[in-house]
Write a structure and sequence with these properties.
The complex is a heterodimer of chains A (about 350) and B (about 230). Chain A has about 350 residues and is mostly helical. Chain A has helices at about 1-5, 15-35, 40-60, 70-85, 95-115, 120-140, 145, 165-170, 175-195, 200-210, 210-215, 220-245, 255-270, 275-305, 320-330, 340-345. The longest helix of chain A is centred in the C-terminal third of the chain and has 30 residues, at about 275-305. The radius of gyration of chain A is 20 Å and the shape is globular. Chain B is an alpha/beta fold and about 230 residues long. Chain B is built from 10 helices and 10 strands. In chain B, a hairpin with a 2-residue loop joins strand 9 and strand 10. The chains are: A mainly alpha (about 350), B alpha/beta (about 230). The interface of A and B includes residues 202, 204 and 214 of A. The complex binds adenosine-5'-triphosphate and magnesium ion.
């Protein structure tokens, strides 16, 4: 069937821009070094958010299931990695092994959370996933013997052989950067394969019309399990890497704002296409994590640290700005900032 | 080929089918006619496993279908063109057609059937890369039928294929149904336009509020006074 596949969808007129963006990503550490920006380390979480956005885009964009508790799967991966590698626990496995387990943990939690919603869609499913997103951090807080509660888990093993630890330390961001970029590439590759596969087509059919999809022989209960398990696995992967990157894992890092943020990235970037998810995430998280703090420093240095300086903390406006951006994008660019080809076609 | 005996079904506490029995022989074309809300669509849903009957039995090719999920019924050779067409509007025509072959693993056979479907519906060939939702109503009906044919069904369930279409398009669609039937596929046709249905089918069942009130050869039903009065507009 491969010959039929090319030209199944029209060519993307934005392909050159995507290629330029990819080149920029690959070359960024060099530019960073030459210009002495010291931003490489700050971009690592941005790339991890991009991985999360690609994963969530499968459930929400391809499958049409509104998933409001995505941080729960991120947490599952992070805690699996933390518990399996940290010296605070008896296992102390290498991170590579623990990451595989984290992917499994995310997938398992995803599959389990599909069970109560095998027949649900729309608002009901959204509420169930919201509930899962709330239950997980509460459990992490209170299951102290296992999760160490508010105390958190640290240190988590670093990637690579022990001899590299100096390198992979957060102060040496380059290796981290390329690790995160490579994983993002891997996830994007899997997603593209999936999108063009029989499974991906079944997901889209399910999104378009559940009844017609089952009339074609698509097992719609299985689709729900696949969607939530797949996006859970991706979140588990991001969770493991981020657990190793941050100084400590704490329950507060896996609460609703993270779910809301990733969901807004997906919607802002463009539902149903991984490119939108990637560029949307990179653009918006960079604004939030890199530009906003710099602006804050700059603004505060102008006015001094008076009692108004709190209002100049731009990160505090994060959700205000995201909300505003969502409203504007929905009004003017309903296909997202980087719409899939389908949406462009309809407008044109 | 297909046999329903005493099938009862409904939605929640609403009972819709109150003991429906009908039969479609191998390669036979059978019409199911009746007023709005009689339960025709519901009957097809039960046959295709989209709705579990609360009583009675559905048998297909000699074995009972109780507990057999829809996807297995598709694999067994049931194709369904649902009411209101329901094409996947944001997928291309080609993707829609390939979804019709979702349960099949024989890539070569699927390619062959795609070619056959495109020969039957040349309009679809010109629009292979177009989104399903951008097709006209008649083209969407062709796409829904083509999609069902991609499963290489031995029994085709058709739910009001003429709905909302111009007479010329309806004629075209019915010619295709007749062709499919002549090629050996059994057809269970639900149709408001009873004249059209009875012309195409050898036998028919008349459904009224969930029960079969008349059955027989289409020729005989066409001339029976009470049926003419009720369903054929005198
Ligand atoms: N999903 C549903 N939930 C509740 N009731 C339903 C549902 N679908 C159909 N019904 C009811 O079942 C009865 C039969 O519906 P059905 O769609 O089978 O009729 P029909 O014979 O196909 O009618 P039409 O010719 O208008 O398509 C109707 O009274 C309808 O209101
Ligand atoms: Mg109907």
């Amino acid at each position: 069937m491969t010959p039929a596949r090319t030209g199944e969808r029209p060519r993307d007129p934005h392909a050159p821009f995507h290629r330029a963006g990819l080149a920029a990503l690959v070359l960024f550490p060099a530019a960073d070094h030459l210009l002495d920006l010291r931003l490489v380390g700050d971009v690592v979480p941005v790339l991890l958010f991009a991985i999360l956005a690609v994963g969530l885009n499968a459930t929400v964009g391809l499958g049409g299931l509104l998933q409001l508790g995505y941080a729960a799967y991120f947490a599952a991966g992070a805690y699996a990695a933390g518990i399996l590698t940290s010296v605070a626990y008896p296992f102390q496995l290498p991170l590579e092994v623990a990451t595989a387990a984290a992917v499994g943990a995310g997938a398992l939690l995803g599959a389990l959370s599909a069970l109560p919603v095998l027949r649900l869609k729309g608002d009901y499913l959204a509420i169930v996933t919201l509930g899962i997103g709330e239950i997980v951090p509460v459990t992490l807080r209170n299951l102290e013997p296992i999760t160490k509660g508010e105390f958190g888990i640290s240190p988590v093993d670093l990637p690579g052989p022990r001899a590299w630890e100096d390198w992979t330390n957060t102060t040496h961001g380059v290796l981290w950067y390329y690790l995160a970029l490579a994983l993002l590439g891997l996830v994007v590759y899997c997603q593209r394969r999936l999108e063009r596969s029989r499974i991906g087509r079944a997901w889209e059919a399910f999104r378009e019309d559940e009844l017609a999809a089952s009339a074609c022989g698509v097992d719609t209960a299985a689709v729900r399990v696949q969607l939530l398990a797949y996006s859970g696995a991706v979140a588990g992967l991001a969770g493991a890497v981020s657990a190793s990157y941050v100084p400590a894992i704490l329950p507060s890092q896996y609460e609703f704002p993270i779910s809301a943020m990733v969901l807004s990235l997906v919607v802002l970037g463009g539902l149903g296409n991984w490119r939108g998810a990637v560029w949307g995430a990179i653009l918006l998280v960079s604004l939030d994590r890199i530009l906003a703090p710099s602006l804050t420093r700059w603004a505060q240095s102008l006015v001094g640290s008076g009692s108004y300086s709190f209002f100049l903390e731009f990160s505090n406006y994060r959700f205000l700005l995201f909300g505003l951006a969502l409203v504007l994008v929905m009004r003017w660019r309903p296909g997202g900032l980087f719409p899939p080809r389908a949406a462009q076609e309809r407008v044109g | 080929m297909l046999e329903l005996s005493g099938v009862e079904a409904g939605y929640g506490s609403v009972r819709v089918l109150k003991g429906v029995s009908l039969r479609v022989g191998p390669g036979e074309a059978v019409a199911l006619i009746g007023a709005n809300g009689a339960g025709k669509t519901t009957t097809l849903r039960v046959v295709h496993g989209l709705l579990e009957p609360s009583a009675g039995q559905v048998r297909f090719r000699g074995s009972t279908l109780a507990g057999v999920p829809t996807e297995a019924r598709v694999a067994l050779g049931m194709g369904h063109v649902p009411e209101g067409r329901q094409v996947f509007s944001r997928l291309t025509v080609r993707e829609n057609l390939r979804l019709g072959a979702y349960t099949r693993r024989d890539a070569a056979g699927v390619r062959e059937d795609l070619e056959r479907v495109l020969e039957v519906f040349p309009r679809l060939r010109e629009r292979l890369r177009q989104k399903g939702g951008t097709l006209s109503g008649g083209e969407q009906q062709m796409l829904a039928m083509g999609r069902a044919l991609m499963g290489r069904p031995s029994l085709l369930l058709l739910d009001e294929p003429s709905m909302g279409l111009a007479p010329l398009v309806v004629e075209q669609i019915f010619r295709v149904i007749a062709e499919i039937h002549r090629a050996g596929t059994a057809v269970l046709l639900v149709e408001q336009n009873a004249y059209l249905a009875l012309e195409l089918c050898s036998r028919a069942y008349v459904l009224t509020t969930g029960s079969v009130v008349a059955e027989g050869a289409a020729r005989d039903l066409l001339v029976r006074e009470e049926i003419r009065a009720a369903y054929l507009g005198g």
